[in-house]
Amino acid sequence: MKLAGNDMLIQSLINEGVEYIFGYPGGAALHIYDAIFNQKDMQHILVRHEQGATHAADGYARATGKPGVVMLTSGPGATNAITGIATAFMDSIPMIVISGQVQSHLIGTDAFQETDMIGISRPIVKHSFTVDHQESIPKIVKEAFHIATSGRQGPVVIDVPKDLTNPDDLFDYEYPNDVNIRSYNPPVEPEESQIVRVVEALKEAKRPVIYAGGGTIASNASEELRELNDYIKAPVTNTLMGLGVYPGTDKYFLGMLGMHGTYQANMAMHNADLILAVGARFDDRITNTPEKFAPRAKIVHFDVDHSSVSKIIEADIAVFGQVKNSLKQINNKLKSESAIFSDDKYADWHKQIDVWRQEHGLDHDMYKNLDDSLPVLPQAAVQQIYQSSGGKAFVTSDVGQHQMFAAQYYHFDEPRKWINSGGLGTMGFGLPSAMGVKLAYPDEEVICITGEGSIQMCIQELSTCSQYKLPIKIFNINNLALGMVKQWQDMNYDGRHSSISYEDSLPDFSKLAESYGHVGIKITKNSELKSGIEKALSHKDKLVFVDIYVDPNEHVYPMLVAPNGSLKDMWLSKGNKT
Amino acid sequence: MIERQLTLIMENKPGALARVVGLFHQRGYNIDSLHVDPIKDLKKYEFIEKELDIKFHENEISKLIIKTTVADSLMRQILRQINKLIEVIAVSDNDSTYLKGILRNENLL
What we know:
The complex is a heterodimer.
Chain A: E1 2-4, H1 5-15, E2 20-23, H2 30-37, E3 43-46, H3 50-64, E4 68-72, H4 76-80, H5 82-90, E5 95-101, H6 117-121, E6 127-130, H7 137-149, E7 155-161, E8 170-172, H8 192-204, E9 208-212, H9 214-218, H10 222-232, E10 236-238, E11 253-256, H11 263-271, E12 274-278, H12 284-287, E13 298-303, E14 317-320, H13 323-335, H14 347-360, H15 378-388, E15 394-397, H16 401-409, E16 418-419, H17 430-440, E17 446-451, H18 461-467, E18 473-478, H19 483-492, H20 509-515, E19 519-523, H21 526-538, E20 544-549, E21 559-560, E22 570-573, E23 576-577
Parallel strand pairs in A: 2-3, 2-4, 4-5, 5-7, 6-7, 9-10, 9-12, 10-11, 12-13, 13-14, 15-16, 15-17, 17-18, 18-20, 19-20
Antiparallel strand pairs in A: 1-8, 21-22, 22-23
Helix pairs in contact in A: 1-2, 1-7, 3-5, 3-17, 8-13, 10-13, 11-14, 15-16, 15-21
Chain B: E1 2-11, H1 16-26, E2 31-38, H2 46-52, E3 61-70, H3 72-84, E4 88-92, E5 97-99, E6 102-104
């Protein structure tokens, strides 16, 4: 078959099984967009800003496990996508970003809409390619998908000069079946000797904790993790990125750990004698001061990325390989030895954890307060959303207090249901990522829990939702200020609230949503919370924007004491520290 | 802090060197000296061809020598970060080599 470069690119994506392309056309991408027009296998979703395209592709990837695909033009099209690429990179999300480039002979001349996309994106991609000839397009696309979806996953950029997509130049097209990159070989199977050491460590342990992160989800190892804990019955904590990989309502689940983790999760980590880190990377939001992290614990680290192990916290046992395969091997060993892990092997440890839970665990019944003389608490809003959606929804979030409340109070029983920007902490992520999730799962409830700060960073995508009829439910936890910044200013700057207020400039969000053809609901009282949220969820075919006015003075607790604190040093409420 | 020498064998492709140099800056390490040459005489690297079951051609791969001054504790991290770059085939310091992602406890380069 003979094809031109533009058709080769599109045909390669079809051969990879791509369903959706999120993008925005422009001069350097015109030939490519003509090829998109001439096919029926994929749908192009026209966003309103390239940042929205990357977050939508990212949300699609997190929910499905398949790579998200983004199409951009050169110059500002490419630079607008940078925040979204960095977001995917920090959270190891598979993504293919195709950027148009000016014609080959103009590269380096400061041509109209020219930017060095490969240079600009270099530190925030797993790899990148410049198309040098039409005939390399199928091989490059094949390699890009392979790199993006294997090992530690991540975004891959393909930069395509416009002349190489010219519809008049035809070349032989054959999509390769196999891919073999001679310099790339991520680990898959762990070494058996390490697996034996892990099992021995588990037998010796008296106070073990499983600390599972986003890598466990990326490796689709939720089932294996649950099986592991069927054998050993240890307490389990999840990172912000890992929520859902272990059931949030399970009796062995401690809640999230770290900066705003639960008291019992942080105390258990601090006092553990064995930590099984599974697809987690000891981020600074987790460890607090690394020198004071879990002083008595032996560390076992399961990871596919060599450079993540012993980077922050030295591992005593390192297990390199796909987390799924490593856990399978451990489970095979444990199957024959499950008698050793009788129900009461860690009984004293569980008893201690229950004491911590009772002392300072989270209050999950705040939504029951119907007193209208008190303001709506943001925690109660999230709890009511959890109750009304039956805990089954996909939930995307933005960044700030509402994100932490959502992570603390919405219990996720399944992986890939909690979609948020953990590593980069990107405001504006919530709405566009929800679009990607809703396109992937049109029959599932998709909720975006956001704040009045974050939502305004990509609010233009309300128009995209209208065009493609995406009935997302947006819950805007509106505290009239940049809440997390305000919290830090309250705690560390004697309450000097620098640049966190919009004064009287906020729009009426429900009316704004209505102007795009959506439904708007406003909630200002506790007595309206349940009925307002249920009414929103009852609109099956409409996007509903629920603007919930909450107590502007609320803080997120627990909160780790920093700098120089350990995991046992937490603020538990205003003025009350461990 | 002592000066350490790293040797890399990598694909001789446009942009590959920039990834290595960028990595040092990005992770906060300093390069004291840098030397890069496409490899004409492939005899010395036959063991890689044998090990990976591939065939190199003249000028297809490059040899990089980087001198850097870092704490011992960071050396392993630098090696692992470099090893992660897709176009790097092998990287050695004084004591070890990553060859296509697999660690050997000797300097093979």
